[in-house]
Amino acid sequence: MRPKRLGFTILHRAAILAYIAFALFPLFWLLKVSITPNDLLYGEGVRMWPSRSTFDHYVFVLEHSDFPLFFRNSLIVSLSTAFIVTALASIAGYALSRFAFRGKFWIVGLMLLTQMFPLVMLIAPIFKILSPLGLTNSLTGLIIVYVAFNVPFATFLMQSFFDGIPKDLEEAAMIDGATRFKAFRQIILPLTLPGIAATLGFVFTAAWSELLFALMLISGVDASTFPVGLLSFVSKFSVDFGQMMAAGVLALIPACLFFFFIQRYLVQGLTAGAVKG
Amino acid sequence: MASIDIAAIRKAYGSTHVLHGVDLTIKDGEFVVLVGPSGCGKSTLLRMIAGLEDISSGEIRIGGRRVNDLDPKDRDIAMVFQSYALYPHMTVAENMSYSLRLRKTAKDKISTAIAGAGAKLGLGALMERRPKALSGGQRQRVAMGRAIVRAPKAFLFDEPLSNLDARLREQMRGEIKKLHQDLGATSIYVTHDQIEAMTLADRIVAMNAGIVQQVGSPLDLYDRPANLFVAGFMGSPAMNMFAGTYRNSGGAPRVELAEGVAVPVGEGIAAADGAKVTLGIRPEHVVVTRGGGPGIQAFIDLVEPTGFGTILHASAFGSDVKAFSLERGLATRGDTVSVAFPVDRIHLFDHEHGARIG
């Protein structure tokens, strides 16, 4: 390798490393603070690693706080939202990708419109709508709101995946004797697994970390999700950073697990070889 | 197996008309090729027979049964796509058995059918592979295998060889023909390649701009093209065409071309004295003689040896005259030769409408 090329390679790798370090540093700090004993948190100044580490914060969060309940609520809300949205978005995305129908232009336009203004504007009307229905302070209400907000984007996402699958495949299946729905289920859906995984992951994360609506629609501890729960570490007089960070680390686990299970589909290019490559 | 009747079929997308009333009867066991340039409506017609496109008006019958409103799955036809359209997540065996599994065929019958089709197409060793692990020719064979396991009423082919390289295309063309001779299945084959059309078809349907131009046996279309379009489309190198004026007064019937050149033509031409006509002659029928032989004087501009023969481009009476000769070294660039158009090889077309007049 010539020195010039070597130089470029080193520069290239260094740039990537710098980017990764920059992106992951907050996570590292989260971890660091979560294992730093309270007495060292302010006493040691800014250090990359505390001189003494402890799991006390984790023990407290798991045993003496409502966090297990918040986790359960968040899991229910996020998983339900992810699955409902993905199912709806798959069907709608398929229709938008394959069919020409009256009003399609306006439906797409309306869906885009919902993505254009800040959600804060909608809090009051949504509260007004959900309140008489008894859907405030309930996980069901939260799921409905999250589904409504995530369906448009997820539909566009799924549509782009369907667009990437040649029409010939379902036509071949229909000639082979399948109904359109069977062709969709047996031929097209299996090929869209990477897209479905991406959509599931995207919606799950969005619902998992959503704070605004959870904060406004939920008031009791019973129906709180974990982002709301995190705020309970902020009291009038102090912020318990150690416990808050420990809860944050714990909250990362489900999201990581979820991506671990779907990453196989995320990276898989199943359509290779379907048509002439 | 079944016959297919197409009556007054039209197709329009909004105000765009793609097919302008097609009538065609395909006999049981016949191999019919729809040929024409891209956009002529041949694929649309095939997809309407398959049930993948709605019929704007007219009627299609398969085996005597009206299928206009039947879903593709109920028409009992098989189709081979240009892209092969193999299911990427299924093995070769699963691809071929999919239609049978949908019909809930017994397991042992399925394996017999697949083994039979696999043996016929030489796919035996590839049964457990996925499409992406196959070469282009193998994928093409799997697509054919998927069609034949079912023994459908008819086979539809939508430019199935267009994605293959020239050599493989020639080989698969032979295999398709052999397969048709074995199975005797009613087949409709769409292509823009006139060689495929000529070699495969029992009958060719030449189409242009949504209208059937001529229906007939391959040699019929080649020897007696019904109009200028068919004359120009069939054959490679393409037919020579020269504009001229028909004369039958004051001597034998002849066509006057540019620069005072007159070419004698046969009797019984359906044209009046002085009518504008187009004279056509295939390059292989142009007689080229070295030196001052009988005929029209011409200069050789370009010589294209193909190995099999030689294509000569000569300029005469202000036009480019193509000639094809099996003889090598007949002339080189810059030579003066004489070209002659034998009377019995000349095609005459009406200048305005392009219809054959003699």
Automatic annotation (TrEMBL), chain B:
PROSITE patterns in the record: ABC_TRANSPORTER_1, ABC_TRANSPORTER_2
Broad class of the protein's primary localization: membrane
One example of a Gene Ontology biological process annotation: carbohydrate transport
One term of GO molecular function: ATP hydrolysis activity
Domain ABC transporter: 4-234
SUPFAM superfamilies, per the entry: MOP-like, P-loop containing nucleoside triphosphate hydrolases
Any one annotated GO CC term: ATP-binding cassette (ABC) transporter complex, substrate-binding subunit-containing
Cell compartments where the protein resides: Cell inner membrane
Xref: Pfam families: ABC_tran (PF00005), OB_MalK (PF17912)
Protein topology in the membrane: Peripheral membrane protein
Protein name: Multiple sugar transport system ATP-binding protein
